[in-house]
User: What shape does this take?
Amino acid sequence: MTAPSAAPRPQFSLVDATSLIVGIIIGSGVYRASPVIASQVGSPMALIVVWLAGGAFALLGALCYAELATTYPVEGGDFVYLSQAFGRPLGFVYAWCQLWIIRPGSVGAMAFVFATYARQVLPLGETIAMTYALAAVAGLCLVNIVGVRQGKWTQNVLSGVKVAGLAAIVILGIAWPAPTVLAPAATSASSYWSLALILVVFTYSGWNEMPNVAAEVRDPRRNILRALLTGTLAVTAIYLLVTVAFLRSLGFAGLRTSEAVAADVVAHALGPWGATAVSLLICISALGAINGMTITGSRLYYAFGRQHAMFRWLGRWSPRLGTPVASLVTEAVITSATIAALAAIYGTDRDGFERLIHFTAPLFWIFLTLVAASLPVLRQTDAARDRPFRVPLYPAPPIVLAIFCALMAIASLRYAWENRAWEAAWALGVLGVGMVLACADALLWKNHRDTETPSTRGEDK
Assistant: This one.
């Protein structure tokens, strides 16, 4: 039997890539955020419109990423685009922040959600909650170390189950409508469409992850575009159907005041035991998001290690297992340390989840703004490169995407400041360290290039 190649190989089909997108996007946001979003708008129609607006934003982003990913079908996604458009230092800073802030914060937030609901399904005491979170991270890391096939099959199963569960909620919500017609709540002075949009866009986030595995997608010229469009449109349709089901089952006023909207819908149709079924579904949704981000994050670190000698050890692909073992283990260790630290300070329930969102959101949106700006930059600086797909109506899509992401970054920073979320300040401190290291890396790279001979560079003498 031949050992797997010590480099990424095309193993993700169109179904696998689409499952990855759907699995990462649909985490716990649709369950947690729906009542809050409804409370910020004035009518059921306005609620539908805001969910459609979020889907339009996700589709806009997916189209921009389709051009970038098909033009540069290599591992690393945003790291590659930022490095190509703005230089090695910015790529270094982005990967550094992903390593220490964005990725562990995002995965950790989903691990906290998993722990919260796993404790409801199998209550073993307060102290077991963090164990659930750490076990989810470690277990899925191990699955992906064993092989790419095992990781993607796990993703397909988790994504399939969560979609089936949401379909069941839709059927129950529509089949068992609210017993009385409740009048729509009037728009109050405290309602904010901006907050509703922020929460909706957060719930749609994840479509930018799949390009991290672009080198492993079969027939990337066609399947990357297809996966991004299919995954984004499928999630939009699912969210709209789920919202309609929530409205029909609970009424608009009931949705606005619900503390566990999916559980209320199922309990309304099937009785109290439905709450346990919903808790299990949310656990599966969280695991699907964790597994998907584990896959994509490890590929980003692999690309980072391949390009920067300071982190060369991350750029190793196991010839025996055919996976980026060093990146997977590093990702799990840093995420577990983040979870343990936050759990020790704030607990494993709502505070831990929200603190990790504060920790990651500002930098996430800042870098996404730069990625959107990288598309027109690369159109100019790398114009000769073949582009299998070009975003329609250019240059409007990347400009609109960059403006919206910049507004989201400002809103995230303002929200963190107003709520005294000092985790965001800590994240900015880590960003500063990364900028210093990026400068050191640039000097090392310059010295290395200066000492090379023309022949070693592949240049003519």
